[in-house]
């Protein structure tokens, strides 16, 4: 008797169906709502600080709560998807996000706002993992990487949408309106996922419940794929002790791994600062909330373009070279944002747009540098470790921003500080590439 194909075999080696494309589109829309959720607080910050009479340093603690929650959710909540299912956890997380965002519209306490942003971040961190896994498990092998890239443009699209909503809503209706809009968008995402998203066939096979075959075939039928006559044989359990992440990174790659972690950490300090304080820096430059919202649209729109440009050019230019180009461009754009004269609307919007372009492009380039530093046996562990250090930088960035702004450094010197930091990840990208083993084929591109 021939071995039965797995659902993964069928999906990976066949053309994409309309249903698969629809699932991916829903994931992108959900990720766009997530991108909006992350940056809502940055648009509300100037009004909350003024209305509640709190210091920038104190508000920096609230800004840092979201990335702390994202790190917690990524590590501790997302694994639940392997027990209860991707669809089930996605729906729970979207329901929680909607509730937390509605609650934020009623918030009148700094401590309560901090708690709400923490739990919102926890839901966001876990949901992002679920979306990546869902897109991967619903994509064929030929287009899987492309669709994962498209998924991540949803974050920039969400930030862009948040800027547009801020421009329209905040001045006439107050800062609570932006959280209400985010809550409504998450309710829409919840309903779309509830009605249209099926559980991943790969997950159903891994759990092997009594109705697994019927449920898998129901999903395959929605995809227009051949049905299974029987479940494939369960894989034999691997013997031996499972090693931790560091154990599967060869000793020869440790130095480069450390460099990449330092680069990701420092980069995300500046990126996290900009995510949390960009509207406030523009407000310091004299930009009203309407133009601040316009700047948000152009800034996140430029980020979408940066995703595509870096992804398209990285192999030709070299991952290391394009990372250095974008990191130094990020430094220059930050300093430019600080140097634009107060009251120069066009200059501030242009500087913000450039900063978004180089910021997002730098992030994409650093991910590519890290992926191509490792061979397949250590790639997941290496990228996971680098991104873990980056999360810490994203926590520190908004907090450090609140401290230096509260110390009255001035707009130029604040932006100069966070821009000049980019020399460090640029240097680490160069040295990590120099230390890369010659046997790694992906590194031949620079």
Write down the overall mean pLDDT. 83
Order of helices and strands: HHHHHHHHHHHHHHHHH
Describe the biggest sheet?
Answer: none
Which spans have pLDDT < 50 for at least 5 consecutive residues? 237-247, 439-446
Question: Count of helices?
Answer: 17
Q: What is the radius of gyration?
A: 22 Å
Helix/sheet category: mainly alpha
Distance between the termini: 49 Å
Q: Give the overall shape.
A: globular
Notes on the structure:
- With 446 residues, the protein is an all-alpha fold.
- It contains 17 helices and no strands.
- It has helices spanning 7-12, 18-52, 56-77, 81-84, 86-104, 110-138, 144-173, 176-196, 201-207, 212-223, 254-284, 289-317, 319-339, 345-373, 379-406, 411-420, 423-434.
- Helix 2 runs antiparallel to helix 3, helix 11 runs antiparallel to helix 17 (423-434) and helix 12 runs parallel beside helix 14 (345-373).
- The protein is globular and about 70 Å long.
Brief sketch in words of this structure:
The protein has 446 residues and is an all-alpha fold. It is built from 17 helices and no strands.
């Amino acid at each position: 008797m021939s071995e039965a194909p797995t659902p993964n075999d069928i999906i990976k080696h066949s053309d994409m169906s309309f249903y698969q494309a629809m699932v991916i589109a829903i994931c992108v829309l959900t990720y766009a709502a997530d991108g909006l959720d992350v940056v809502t607080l940055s648009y509300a910050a100037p009004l909350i600080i003024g209305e509640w009479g709190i210091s920038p340093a104190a508000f920096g603690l609230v800004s840092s709560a979201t990335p702390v929650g994202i790190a917690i959710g990524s590590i501790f909540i997302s694994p639940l998807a392997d027990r209860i299912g991707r669809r089930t956890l996605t729906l729970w997380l979207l329901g929680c996000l909607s509730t937390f965002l509605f609650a934020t519209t009623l918030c009148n306490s700094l401590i309560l706002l901090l708690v709400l942003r923490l739990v919102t971040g926890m839901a966001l961190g876990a949901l992002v993992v679920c979306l990546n896994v869902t897109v991967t498990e619903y994509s064929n092998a030929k287009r899987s990487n492309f669709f994962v890239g498209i998924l991540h443009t949803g974050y920039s699209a969400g930030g862009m949408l948040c800027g547009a909503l801020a421009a329209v809503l905040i001045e006439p209706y107050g800062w609570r309106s932006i959280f209400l809009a985010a809550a409504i968008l998450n309710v829409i995402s919840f309903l779309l996922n509830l009605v249209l998203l099926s559980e991943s066939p790969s997950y159903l096979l891994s759990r092997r419940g009594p109705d697994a075959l019927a449920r898998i075939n129901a999903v395959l039928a929605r995809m227009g794929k051949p049905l299974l006559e029987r479940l494939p044989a369960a894989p034999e359990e691997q013997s031996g002790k499972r090693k931790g992440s560091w154990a599967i990174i060869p000793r020869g790659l440790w130095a480069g791994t450390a460099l990449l972690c330092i680069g990701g950490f420092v980069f995300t300090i500046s990126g996290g600062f900009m995510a949390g304080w960009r509207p406030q820096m523009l407000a310091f430059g004299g930009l009203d909330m309407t133009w601040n919202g316009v700047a948000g649209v152009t800034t996140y729109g430029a980020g979408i373009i940066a995703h595509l440009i870096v992804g398209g050019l990285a192999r030709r230019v070299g991952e290391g070279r394009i990372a250095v180009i974008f990191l130094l461009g990020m430094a220059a754009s930050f300093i430019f944002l600080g140097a634009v004269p107060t009251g120069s609307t066009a200059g501030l919007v242009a500087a913000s747009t450039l900063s978004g372009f180089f910021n997002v492009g730098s992030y994409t380039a650093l991910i590519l540098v890290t992926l191509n530093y490792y061979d397949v046996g250590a790639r997941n562990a290496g990228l996971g470790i680098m991104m873990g250090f980056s999360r810490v930088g994203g926590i520190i960035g908004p907090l450090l921003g609140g401290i230096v702004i509260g110390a009255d450094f001035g707009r130029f010197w604040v932006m100069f500080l966070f821009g000049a930091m980019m020399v460090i990840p640029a240097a680490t990208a160069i040295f990590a590439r120099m230390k890369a083993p010659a046997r790694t084929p992906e590194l031949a591109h620079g």
